[in-house]
Automatic annotation (TrEMBL), chains A, B:
It comes from the Bacteria. This is Fumarylacetoacetate hydrolase family protein. Residues 1-76 form the Fumarylacetoacetase N-terminal domain. Residues 271-280 have a biased composition (Gly residues).
Length: 335, 335
């Protein structure tokens, strides 16, 4: 099924959306918010699934769904933890600054605790106080779990993934080096992220959901031009289930936990760094990766970070070309 | 006023507690949960204050308040960000491993994003899967804000501090070095924290609340013996308002954001590292600090981290000896 939260108050209003993302039926008589549904998922999900079947069969009255009316599926969440499943991205960033990739990075995922108190809506502007901070997009896959016990393995973790979304993990790149040098991880360099208008159960992905990975290209346009076409199922060293298990090693995870894949990133077909889409490559899911490649190739980055007025869109389509999650579409705005 | 959340469901049941923490009156007719109260604080707080006056004047029927029935005031929160206001603690940890303290640490606070999806109750056991992980307590002051706009200064941030609590920021010390070496900050090394049974408005602290600092000793007992008596108002390089402003530099903070002071830590009267309480010093608010002092003095730490059965209590008393927030009291339990 497909779920969305229409903008309303702090937590939105839960609706069931048709498979083609054109119609919705209010579901707040079943659960007022997506968080409330997740808090009692075992009981609530079958009722939402039944409504979804009715929506698909046009057995209930539906209303036209406008993606710009949607908040992020969880407008605020109790947990947002973002991994780095695509080691290619991490390796490139390190190579650009002349650092080796520790072998342990292939066994032990990178993950940071992100802020989750207020996500941006999928069509909300990205408010930026200072362009010098180096605003960047990061196109990612994200999942929402139910309650996950402490110490689960990846196989068990897979069953706790209830919903899948896309994410724009907004980053302030020029604040990262000083912040990471302090040793406590990202904080000011990670302002609120945005998620796709619609969250879907894994079965909606059909064959594209396998091994805890989404096997479809992540379509990223920057200022209206194709920028990223990376295959999300390729070069993912860790599955989303691996990342859930990593997060749950020393503590349980509460229902409504959002876990991110990190920036989707592919090596080039020849094993080297990815080429731009315009040169026949799969492009990039963030500007920083292009800048690292420019640095490795030319000694310095050429592409600037995002400035007021720059736009990014993030989408994924099924094998028939239909949007699965709706489209994240954001413009940077001086705040 | 003093507020608590009695254990009930995922978010507890909001009650107003008498100043002496012996009686309560249900407040869920005003707001069902503390988060709901914070979401609409401007309207809700005056009604809670009115009920608090009635509780104090015994103008409403009250029920005996048992601290072990309380969850953390926010049983789960949308944000938990923990600073390091007490640079003495940071300096000692660095000195023990032979590292200098960067001068910038006196201007730019350390802060990490913590997990907030499920806090431990103040009398809940600390579940520990593996003693090898090096379980430690951290005694801290924590505040809860209302909505804080992006970019506020410290003076304005002060007005957004609505409630004050104590915190036990449980840490798994032996997981810290490898995790910080990866560069993304704490994650597995920071399992759920616990907060005091009662959260209080700053006016309840009377003269002890000044300059965004709480000027009372933090009383920590370990296995029934006095372990820490550090003055929370002393050696706090950053105020709680400074930390709120730091958190809000690049993004707004949503109502119900919890900001921690970091481990309370005092230098000795002679300017050196603190001495144990038993030797006339102010002791320590975590075991790691004692271990760093042992390392600096003797070349190696002698005091082990917490093991199953070890207990910690954290409390603060007013000038008349009355408990302000109730007592955090936890035992480590094999999970």
């Amino acid at each position: 099924m497909k779920l969305a939260s229409l903008k309303s108050g702090r937590d939105g209003r839960l609706v069931v959306v048709s498979r083609d993302i054109t119609r919705y039926c209010a579901a707040d008589n079943i659960a007022p918010t997506l968080q409330a549904a997740l808090d009692d998922w075992e009981n609530v999900a079958p009722r939402l699934e039944a409504l979804y079947r009715d929506v698909e069969h046009e057995a209930v009255p539906c209303i036209r769904f406008h993606e710009h009316d949607a908040a992020s599926p969880l407008p605020r969440a109790y947990q947002w933890a973002d991994g780095s499943a695509y080691i290619n991205h991490v390796a490139l960033v390190r190579k650009a600054r002349g650092a080796e990739l520790p072998a342990s990075f292939h066994e032990d995922p990178l993950m940071y605790q992100g802020g989750s108190d207020a996500f941006l809506g999928p069509r909300d502007p990205i408010p930026l106080r200072d362009e010098v901070w180096g605003c960047d997009m990061e196109g990612e896959i994200a999942v929402i779990t139910d309650d996950v016990p402490m110490g689960v393995g990846a196989a068990e973790a897979l069953g706790h993934i209830k919903l899948v979304m896309l994410c724009n993990d907004v980053s302030l790149r020029n604040l990262v080096p000083a912040e990471l040098a302090k040793g406590f991880g990202f904080f000011q360099s990670k302002p609120p992220s945005a998620f796709s208008p619609v969250a879907v159960t894994p079965d909606e992905l059909e064959g594209a959901w396998a091994d805890g990975r989404v096997h479809r290209p992540l379509l990223i346009d920057y200022n209206g031009q194709p920028f990223g076409r990376a295959e999300a199922g390729v070069d993912a060293t860790f599955s989303l289930a691996d990342l859930v298990a990593h997060a749950a090693k020393t503590r349980p995870l509460s229902a409504g936990t959002v876990i991110g894949s990190g920036t989707v990133s592919n090596r080039d077909a020849d094993g080297g760094p990815g080429r731009p889409v315009g040169e026949g490559g799969r492009g990039y899911s963030c500007i920083a990766e292009l800048r690292t490649i420019e640095t490795i190739r030319d000694g310095a980055p050429a592409t600037p970070f995002m400035r007021a007025g720059d736009t990014v869109s993030i989408e994924m389509r099924d094998a028939h070309g239909h949007s699965i999650f709706g489209r994240i579409e954001q413009v940077v705005e001086q705040a």
